[in-house]
Amino acid sequence: MNIKILTGFDHVLLEVGIALLPLLGFFLFFQFFVLRLPMAQFFNILKGLVPTFLGLALFLQGVKVGFFPVGTEMGGILAGMGHNWLLIPIGFVLGFVATFAEPAVRILNIEVEKASSGSIPQRIMLYALSIGVALSIALSMTRILLGVPLWYFIIPGYLLALLLIRFSSKTFTAIAFDSGGVATGPMTVTFIMAISVGAAATTEGRNPLLDGFGMIALVALAPIISVLILGILYRRSQGGSS
């Protein structure tokens, strides 16, 4: 692969600037007409926008020249091997590691531990989410190799989630559905999705659009089920209290 780090970086800067401008406009409007924060705090927030802008731009550039090409190449190489079933355990490991390193997941776990006064430790939540996503990635790789339609997993999966709500606690039900969105963060979407698309493009008889995509839907579903199961275990350990 011939990768040039700064290729197209000017377009990325423009896109990030356009994305942040409406947020800046809303903030300025509320600052002058509603919030009226002290000027020192106001200027601190404005200064914080600079590393935010640069961080987003550098991240998106890294995705463009690094994560996507490498992920697609990895998926193609793994699917093209004689033992393409290795995609399943490798997908499991990558799903676990990506979720374990996901910043949004860490923040959710910290907030859950704080709101529950420590009764739901962030480490338990982190392992529950990581295992759930890892299983969903392994399932996605299985779906690509076997050519199974996505709805064979989505419909039974959400039916199972609705059933688990009946037995889980109200607290974990609320956390579970937020976890589904948080788990589909930049680490999973940018890297592992590229691997699945590359694998589908290389696997004979598979369509990258039909078989490569859809993985994120499974990733969003898996944490819901894993956290609901965790809620059932917590409920039983506490004698059935909600």
From TrEMBL:
Source organism: Desulfurivibrio alkaliphilus
Descriptive protein name: DUF1538 domain-containing protein
Keywords on record: Membrane, Transmembrane, Transmembrane helix
Stretches that traverse the bilayer: 12-35, 42-63, 83-103, 124-144, 150-168, 180-201, 213-234
InterPro entries in alphabetical order: UmpAB
